[in-house]
Amino acid sequence: MKKLNRKEITKLTNITKPFLMIDNIKKILDLRSAIGIKKVSKNSWFFKCHFINQPMMPGTLIEEAMLQTIVATLYSSKKFEDKNCLVTSSKTNFYSKVDKPTTLSIEIKIHKITKLKVETSAIVKNMKKIKVATGNYNYFISTK
Predict the structure, then answer these.
(1) What is the maximum span of the chain, computed from C-alpha positions, in angstroms?
(2) CB–CB of 69/4 below 8 Å?
(3) 12: domain CATH number?
(4) Which of 48, 68, 67 lies closest to 57, judged by CA?
(5) What is the SS3 assignment for the chain?
(6) Fewer Cβ within 10 Å of end Cβ, the chain: N or C?
């Protein structure tokens, strides 16, 4: 099984801190599944500016962690070396907030790949294994 560190993810996705929402990806099964990891600390930048009196991680950043895990997993495969994946549809559901330090586990699955489309899903859990969010995402595949 393959894994990616932050430097490799940045190289694949062209996304850097502070917007890089995953620290590493492990258990990559080529074009099938992977697990992204995001460590949320008490000093995470979004806690300082999102709901100041009741800080929490924005749902859009949780969703972005799912999308980044999916795309980095796709781009880590030779089949996607010269491809861009652009999200065309998304459906995200949220179940609990992230308002304190934790480690998020982002489990992604790649369900179907055709010439022009990728169908995927993801689930995010905190370190207590409590479900934070789920989502279904479709991507359009184009050449770079």
Answers:
(1) 48
(2) no
(3) 3.10.129.10
(4) 48
(5) CEEECHHHHHHHHCCCCCCCCCCEEEEEECCCEEEEEEEECCCCHHHHCCCCCCCCCCHHHHHHHHHHHHHHHHHCCHHHCCEEEEEEEEEEEECCCCCCCEEEEEEEEEEEECCCEEEEEEEEECCCCCEEEEEEEEEEEEEC
(6) C
Token code pair at residue 132: 């934070």
What pLDDT sits at residue 144? 78
Active site residues: 50
**Burial status of residue 83 (CB atoms within 10 A of its CB: 0-12, 13-18, 19 or more):** middle
- Under 8 Å between Cβ of 120 and 67: no
Q: What is the pLDDT of residues 58-106, one digit of tens each?
A: 999 999 999 999 999 999 999 999 999 999 999 999 999 999 999 999 9
Cis bond before residue 18 (omega within 30° of 0)? yes
Enclosing domain of residue 60: 2-143
- Both tokens of 23, joined, read 């620290």
C-alpha–C-alpha distance, residues 3 and 24, integer Å: 8
Structural domains in the chain (count):
1
Compute how many other C-beta atoms are within 10 angstroms of the C-beta atom of residue 51: 13
